[in-house]
Design goal:
Blueprint (H helix, E strand, L loop, with lengths): L11 H9 L4 H9 L5 H8 L3 H13 L3 E5 L7 E5 L1 H4 L2 H14 L10 E2 L6 E2 L27 H14 L2
Antiparallel strand pairs: 1-2, 3-4
Helix pairs in contact: 2-3
Length: about 170
Amino acid sequence: MRWDSVKEMNCSVARTLSVVGERWTMLILREAFLGRHRFDEFQQGTGIARNILSSRLRDLVRDGILDRARSEGDSGRVEYRLTRKGLELYPVLIAMMRWGDTWLSDESGPPMTLIHRVCGAKTAPDMVCSHCGDHLTAREVVAIPRRPAPAHARRVERAERRRATR
């Protein structure tokens, strides 16, 4: 199976990976969530080669994760801003960060601390049940697949999703 064909799979994880699964993409998004907006800021924060960064930014704009616009003010430089679709990737990034903090930190501990702006306290975001508020773990959740739609209905659904993101 070709990598770019995962977006056609009947699997939300595979479809998400078709957008953010390239190894530099989440690092670019990390920089965007840290408040970086310009090409040179992304390049400096990630160390990614300029040609690859340019390609990844173009893909993120195409996929509706970032908007590309001229900055306000005198410079008129190009800036990249997270869209609503992009902002909704925050829990994915934080889950990756928490896993890395737990399993890959060195003896000095995690490289970053999260502070909740509202109350000012250090925080460790957690997955909770949207119904009862209990902490969720993999062993406490059952995933029930829906019945596959007929092939024609899936094609129509994909086309509608693509139109909605433009």
